[in-house]
Design a protein that fits this description.
single chain; alpha+beta; TATA-Binding Protein; 10-stranded antiparallel β-sheet; 25% helix; elongated; transcription; DNA-binding; TBP_dom_sf; repeat
C-alpha cells in the first residue's frame, strides 16, 4: 500500500441465534423502536444509535447487522441487541457471528485512465454509458471488487477483513502502476 489511504464505511455481519425462532409480531412489539411491516419486508427492522448499526431480524433466528463502521463496532451492537433481547425474556445463547462484507472508500492518491485499464485487464469491466466507474476484479477473490474512478478514488466491496482490503489495494496498485 504505497500511498493509498482507506476508510471502512460499512460492515455487514450475519448473526445466528442457534435453536431460536422469533415471533416477529411479539419481537416488534417488545423491542422499542423496532418496525415490522410484513407486507413490505419479511423481517423486523431495528436501529441502534451507540454503536450505530441497523438489524434485519428474521423469524429463523438469524439477523443481519449493517451500517457499523468496524467489525468491533458491529460485534458491540450485536452484544447490546442480544442483551436487550435476553432482558425482554427471549431465551438466547451466545450468537454466532460471521463477517459477510466490508465496504471501504480508498484514495489511491493518483488519477486513473479507466479506458486504458479496461483495455489491459480482462477482469476489468467498464461501460461509462451506464456507470462512471470501472469494476476491477481481483483474481483469487470470489467476491471482492474495487470500483475505480478517474480522480483516483475507489470503493472496495466484498472484503471480509482489513487485511483483505489492504492486500487488494496493494494488488490494484501493482497491476496498474
Amino acid at each position: 500500500m504505497a500511498d493509498a489511504k482507506y476508510k471502512v464505511n460499512n460492515v455487514v455481519l450475519t448473526v445466528f441465534y442457534e435453536d431460536t425462532r422469533f415471533d416477529l409480531n411479539e419481537l416488534a412489539s417488545s423491542l422499542e423502536g423496532a418496525r415490522y411491516e410484513p407486507e413490505s419486508f419479511p423481517g423486523v427492522i431495528y436501529k441502534t444509535i451507540e454503536p450505530k448499526a441497523a438489524f434485519l431480524i428474521f423469524s429463523s433466528g438469524k439477523a443481519n447487522c449493517v451500517g457499523a463502521n468496524s467489525v468491533k463496532g458491529g460485534k458491540k451492537a450485536i452484544e447490546k441487541l442480544t442483551d436487550k433481547l435476553q432482558d425482554l425474556g427471549f431465551d438466547l445463547g451466545e450468537p454466532g457471528i460471521k463477517v459477510r462484507n466490508m465496504v471501504a472508500s480508498v484514495d489511491f492518491q493518483r488519477k486513473f485512465d479507466l479506458e486504458e485499464i479496461a483495455r489491459n485487464f480482462p477482469h476489468a469491466e467498464y461501460n461509462p454509458e451506464t456507470f462512471p466507474g470501472l469494476a476491477f476484479r481481483l483474481e483469487g477473490y470470489k467476491s471482492m471488487i474495487f470500483l475505480l474512478f478517474t480522480q483516483g478514488e475507489g470503493v472496495c466491496v466484498g472484503a471480509k477483513n482489513k487485511e483483505e482490503i489492504e492486500e487488494g489495494i496493494r494488488r490494484v496498485e501493482k497491476a496498474i502502476e
